[in-house]
Write a structure and sequence with these properties.
Blueprint (H helix, E strand, L loop, with lengths): L1 E7 L4 E7 L5 E7 L15 E2 L1 H17 L8 E8 L5 E3 L9 E2 L7 H11 L1 H8 L7 H11 L1 H6 L2 E3 L1 H10 L4 E2 H6 L3 E2 L4 E2 L1 H7 L9 E2 L10 H7 L7 E6 H8 L8 E5 L3 E7 L11 E4 L10 E7 L3 H12 L4 H9 L9 E3 L17 E3 L8 H25 L7 E4 L7 H11 L3 E4 L3 H12 L6 H4 L5 E5 L6 H12 L4
Parallel strand pairs: 1-5, 5-13, 9-12, 14-20, 20-21
Antiparallel strand pairs: 1-2, 2-3, 4-7, 6-8, 10-11, 14-15, 15-17, 16-17, 18-19, 21-22
The protein binds D-xylulose (XUL).
Length: 490
């Protein structure tokens, strides 16, 4: 059977078609070619039009079909990985009522803080495993408070991946992992959080039916099947946020190994069985794709909003039409430390590991007679790597053992320079694999559709492409960077 994997990212939608027999990739494509826009009409706001996600998906799939390497009618199941924590709201006729408020949007931080106070630190820590922060529930509360005309028309609220599944199948559902990433889930009770719904006065009917990640989330509608050339009735058999999905793609299902991504955001993701929560919600705990009430598997996640977003901003601003590969070549000609230039990559919304503050991005140490664009390119990658180190220390403070990181060879992990900066600054080895979010979503579909009996079987063909080992002492450089950062913190 062929499997279609969809990765709804912030910068593009990527799709891959896999042969379930040998897990080979028959076609892969993404849309748009350059990064998709984020609409930001006010500081700290970040929205995207869900209709654009649908158009990107159709375009990316049509590009795959045009390669002529598979028959769309042979696809037997579809899986979706998606940008987390976003809010999509629909009316009775499945019409989208406003733009999606996406994960990096910070408008709801204060509403989340008020909710945390009202619910109590203990309840948030022990039951929600997080403060409501500016996650989906707080975003919905913002719509309720500020756009009552929109709120009154809401039939269902959903995560971005639930929206794509709805478009494909006409059916609306969500997942336990999705509810947990929106901070709607009470892990102690293993159910929707009643105190949270009561506090925000959300009716329970606004929450779609809840399923496991590996389950049937609907069947492709006849109209969509005709449009895309798919067989009508094939299932969407898997849905998960992009970070748990990335972990699945790397075979990270249990404690021990740790997964990372460096796309628009950067994430380190560890799996644990205990209901772990950081006292200040600087790292977050959500249900993993294999979470079961009786068999809890939780993903503990450190997120840096300004990762690929910072790298893209620098490229767009001073790199013009240069490709990322050309920028990496230039950066590699500058020595480690970027000759004193330092970058704080925090310009993409409230940073959870910085107590939901939004210090903004900054560049320091520029010498106009010495430095060129190459110094900025390198300092950007080193600044992002230093931010990873800062976050990893918080994970270790929470007794998470991170002795090795696994990542797909994609996004910023395509850059050898970034990989080396990452291992040098975090002092943690890195293994790279031939996978990405769209492949993970395809494998997830295979599990959900029963083609594979376990995640271990689905990821058995995972190929390692290389590894990086820490090679230099970066203590002094990192201490200087951290000292600069402390100037921005409360
Ligand atoms: C994870 C997070 C981001 C988004 C990006 O908690 O907010 O990594 O999932 O798509």
């Amino acid at each position: 059977m062929l499997l279609l994997g969809i990765d709804l990212g912030t910068s593009s939608v990527k799709v891959s078609v896999l042969d379930s027999n040998d897990q080979s990739v028959l076609a892969s494509s993404q849309s748009p070619d350059r990064e998709a826009p984020i609409l930001s009409s006010r500081p700290g706001w970040a929205e995207q039009d869900p209709a654009s996600w649908w158009s990107y998906l159709v375009e990316a799939f049509e590009k795959c079909v045009a390669l002529g390497t598979f028959k769309p009618g042979d696809i037997g199941a579809i899986g979706i990985g998606y940008q987390m924590h976003g809010l999509v709201v629909t009316g009775k006729g499945q019409n989208v009522l406003r733009n999606a408020i996406i994960w990096s949007d910070s408008r709801a931080v204060s509403l989340g803080e008020m909710a945390a106070q009202a619910l109590g630190e203990e309840y948030c820590r022990d039951h929600l495993l997080n403060s409501p922060g500016n996650f989906t529930a707080s975003k919905l509360a913002w719509v309720k408070a500020n756009e009552p005309l929109v709120y009154d028309q809401i039939d269902k609220m959903m995560l971005p991946g639930d929206y794509l599944a709805m478009k494909l199948t006409g059916e609306i559902s969500t997942t336990v992992t999705g509810l947990s990433e929106g901070i709607f889930y009470d892990f102690k009770e293993a159910s929707l959080s009643r105190p949270l719904l009561d506090y925000f006065k959300f009716p329970e009917t606004i929450i779609p039916p809840v399923k496991d990640s590996f389950d049937v989330h609907g069947h492709i509608s006849p109209e969509v099947a005709a449009h895309l050339g798919l067989k009508p009735g094939i299932p969407v058999a898997y849905k998960a946020g992009d970070q748990p999905n990335n972990a699945l793609s790397l075979g990270v299902l249990d404690s021990g190994v740790v997964a990372a991504t460096a796309g628009t955001s950067g994430v380190i993701y560890a799996v644990t069985e205990s209901l772990l929560s950081d006292k200040a919600s600087r790292i977050n705990t959500f249900a993993h794709v294999n979470y079961q009430k009786e068999h809890p598997r939780l993903g503990v996640l450190l997120c840096i909003n300004g990762t690929g977003s910072m790298n893209r901003w620098i490229r767009d601003l001073i790199g013009g039409d240069l490709s990322y590969a050309e920028i990496n070549d230039q950066a590699a000609r500058v020595p480690f430390g970027s000759m004193g230039v330092k970058v704080m990559p925090f310009g993409n919304g409230a940073e959870r590991m910085l107590f939901n503050k939004h210090p903004g991005a900054s560049i320091t140490g520029l010498d106009l007679n010495q430095h060129s664009a190459a110094n900025l390119y390198r300092a950007t990658q080193e600044g992002i790597a230093a931010a990873f180190r800062y976050g990893l220390d918080i994970m270790r403070e929470n007794a998470l053992n991170v002795s090795m990181v696994r990542a797909g060879r994609s996004n910023m992990f395509l850059s050898d320079l970034f990989c080396q900066s990452f291992v040098d600054l975090t002092q943690t080895p890195l293994e790279l694999f031939a996978t990405d979010g769209s492949m993970g979503a395809a494998l997830g579909a295979g599990i959900g559709a029963g083609v594979y009996s376990s995640a271990a079987e689905a990821t058995a063909g995972l190929k390692q492409l290389g590894s990086f080992e820490p090679g230099r002492d970066t203590t002094h450089h990192y201490q200087e960077w951290k000292h600069l950062l402390s100037g921005f913190l409360p």
